[in-house]
Structure formats: C-alpha cells, structure tokens
C-alpha cells in the first residue's frame, strides 16, 4: 500500500518524542510555535548525515535515528545549553515502514531522555540523508563559546578519544579486532552519548568549549583561531580506552585520539584551579575529565611527546572539502 508524505509524517513522527509545555503548535502547520523563556538565549545547531559520507548503507536504522539527534545535542552541549526542540528533514529513496519504525525508535529514546520535542520538518524522495536542527536554551551571557579561551587555561577532554576512529578502521579498512574490542568501538561510533548534563554542570567554571566531532586537533584549532591563542598538547596525556590500547601500537592509538572524529566528547578550556572541582562535578555523571595541555600565547598548536619532541600528524581531522 502506498503512503503519502503527510500520512508518513503522522504515522511515524507526530508523536514520537517528548511533549513540552513551551510548544504551542508543533507538527501539522506551516510553522511551529514555541516560547523562549525570559532571561535565556536560543542556541541553534544543524547537521546533515548523508549515506556514503557519514554512514554506510548497512547502518542500524535505530542507530542512525539516535546519532542524527546526538550530533546536534553534542553541539548544544558544547555551548552549555539545555536542549528543547528539534526539526527533521528526511530524504528517503522509498518508504519502508520497518526501517522508519526502527529509525524513529532510536530518535525517540534519545529525545525523551533529553526532553526534546520534534516540532516540524520535511520529508522528500531521494538518496538517504538526514538533516536535524536542534534548539536549546542557555542563560543570557553564559554560553560556552570558542572565542573565550585565555592564556594559562588548562585544556581538558571528557571521556576517551579515538574509539570511533578505531571502529571506522575496522568497518572501512578491514582492520581485524578482538570481538569485544570491535563491539565497544562500534558502540562508541554508532551510539554516541552527548555530554549535555556534564556541560551544564561545569558551565560556570569553563571559559571555552567545543565538541570533538572532526578530531581533537582540528576542533581545538577552532578554539585557538577564534580566541587568538596557541596551545601545547601533551600527547601521552590523551585519554585512551583499554580496547583502543589493546588493539593498536601506542603511537597509532595516540594518533587516532588526536585526529579521529566522531567521538562527540568535549574539549574544554578552564583555569587550572578549576580542574579538581570540574572532575568532581563530572564524576556525578560517571564521566572522566583529563588534563591534556595548556593555552599559550601565539597561534601554534604544538603536540609534544614524552621526550619533548614535536609530534606532527599527517592530517588533523575530517574535512568535507
């Protein structure tokens, strides 16, 4: 049985997420209507995932629904914002009810967990692509930004780095991994956990932040460029998971941690004296925070090995063009 666009939207998306009191009109009209609370700014982010570029045809549809929302939530986390609303533009080669049910299940579970309501969007026919726009709130003047890093700040990262890159090596380059290591790495790649509550907990202590989607080196450079500062990274301090360490030689593991994307952890700059307090706050969420370097004068990013030599990777991270 054929299904038209509006029946598809009504069946799979109208009621698939959290219901919010600040939404007066959601899916079903030309525009959605929602209210921004007094004393807050609206944080907006948009990302597109395209088959063959950001995911393979074999991806679990539920994982794709989860990740489509997670990448936007991670952007909001990088600003210290609280998620609120989402809009979705979905391009499909055909209508597959089983695929759509799984996709919306992955989307719905994460949306409900973070109090996000899907309030509008669009569906069309074409090559598979998912565009998700996220909206959130942050108290006026309190957002974490890329242009606020200060000389003398410590540089910190949440969680571990390089795990998603390890999964991509296995999936795209045929690297053989122990089954338990492959399971761990693919879970990190396909089901990222955006650090939303963690970022809100340390928002008042941090100066600048960015989410690590294109690789630590590439994303940290955005902070340096916007803030007009430099940085020194201690390579041996980069946090590595046990599955990554047991799968690769040390220098290759550190290279992935520095350059691989899709980890969706946070890179944060903050005063050195705030480190212990931030660690305690994040431990309440089961999240680690690791000191990896310092913000310096100048504009260079220097990555130093234990013996003091400068490590220069062949590439710094993912680039679309």
TrEMBL record:
Catalytic activity from the UniProt record: thiamine phosphate + ATP = thiamine diphosphate + ADP
Annotated ATP binding lies at 121-122, 146, 213
Annotated SUPFAM superfamilies: PurM C-terminal domain-like, PurM N-terminal domain-like
- Residues binding substrate are 54, 262, 318
Gene3D superfamilies, per database record? PurM-like C-terminal domain (3.90.650.10), PurM-like, N-terminal domain (3.30.1330.10)
The UniProt annotation places Mg(2+) 4 binding at 30, 45, 75
Encoding gene (name): thiL
**What NCBIfam families does UniProt report for this protein, alphabetically?**
thiL (TIGR01379)
Q: Which residues bind Mg(2+) 1?
A: 47, 122
Q: Name its pathway.
A: Cofactor biosynthesis; thiamine diphosphate biosynthesis; thiamine diphosphate from thiamine phosphate: step 1/1
State the protein's name.
Thiamine-monophosphate kinase
Q: Where does Mg(2+) 2 bind?
A: 47, 75
Specify the taxonomic lineage. Answer: Bacteria, Pseudomonadati, Pseudomonadota, Gammaproteobacteria, Chromatiales
Describe the task this protein carries out: Catalyzes the ATP-dependent phosphorylation of thiamine-monophosphate (TMP) to form thiamine-pyrophosphate (TPP), the active form of vitamin B1.
> Could you tell me which residue ranges the PurM-like C-terminal domain spans?
151-301
Residues given in the record as Mg(2+) 3 binding sites: 30, 75, 211
Other comments? Answer: Reaction mechanism of ThiL seems to utilize a direct, inline transfer of the gamma-phosphate of ATP to TMP rather than a phosphorylated enzyme intermediate.
Q: Where is the PurM-like N-terminal domain?
A: 28-136
Tell me which EC number(s) this protein carries: 2.7.4.16
Q: Sorted alphabetically, which keywords does the UniProt record give?
A: ATP-binding, Kinase, Magnesium, Metal-binding, Nucleotide-binding, Thiamine biosynthesis, Transferase
In alphabetical order, the GO MF annotations are:
ATP binding; magnesium ion binding; thiamine-phosphate kinase activity
User: What biological process terms from GO does the record include?
Assistant: thiamine biosynthetic process; thiamine diphosphate biosynthetic process
Q: What residues bind Mg(2+) 5, as annotated?
A: 214
Cited InterPro entries = PurM-like_C_dom, PurM-like_C_sf, PurM-like_N, PurM-like_N_sf, ThiL-like
């Amino acid at each position: 049985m054929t299904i038209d666009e509006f029946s598809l939207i009504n069946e799979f998306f109208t009621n698939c997420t959290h219901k919010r009191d600040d939404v007066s009109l959601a899916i079903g009209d030309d525009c959605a209507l929602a209210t921004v609370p007094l004393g807050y700014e609206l944080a907006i982010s948009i990302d597109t995932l395209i088959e063959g570029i950001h995911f393979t045809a074999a991806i679990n549809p539920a994982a794709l629904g989860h990740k489509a929302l997670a990448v936007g939530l991670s952007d909001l986390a990088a600003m210290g914002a609280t998620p609120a609303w989402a809009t979705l533009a979905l391009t499909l080669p055909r209508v597959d009810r089983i695929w759509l049910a799984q996709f919306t299940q992955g989307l719905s579970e994460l949306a409900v967990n973070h109090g996000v309501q899907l309030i509008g969007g669009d569906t069309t026919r074409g090559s598979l692509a998912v565009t998700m726009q996220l909206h959130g709130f942050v108290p006026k003047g309190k957002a974490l930004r890329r242009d606020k890093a200060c000389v003398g700040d410590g540089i910190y990262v949440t969680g571990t780095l390089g795990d998603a890159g390890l999964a991509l090596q296995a999936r795209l380059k045929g690297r053989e991994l122990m089954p338990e290591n492959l399971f761990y790495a693919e879970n990190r790649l396909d089901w990222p956990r955006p650090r939303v509550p963690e970022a809100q907990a340390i928002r008042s202590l941090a100066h600048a932040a960015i989410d690590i989607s294109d690789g630590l080196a590439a994303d940290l450079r955005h902070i340096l460029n916007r803030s007009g500062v430099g940085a020194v990274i201690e390579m041996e301090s980069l946090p590595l998971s046990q599955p990554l360490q047991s799968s690769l030689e040390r220098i290759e593991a550190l290279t992935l941690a520095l350059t691989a994307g899709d980890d969706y952890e946070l890179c944060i700059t903050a005063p050195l004296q705030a480190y212990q307090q931030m660690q305690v706050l994040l431990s309440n969420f089961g999240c680690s925070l690791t000191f990896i370097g310092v913000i310096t004068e100048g504009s260079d990013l220097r990555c130093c090995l234990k013996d003091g030599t400068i490590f220069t990777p062949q590439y710094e991270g993912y680039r679309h063009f």
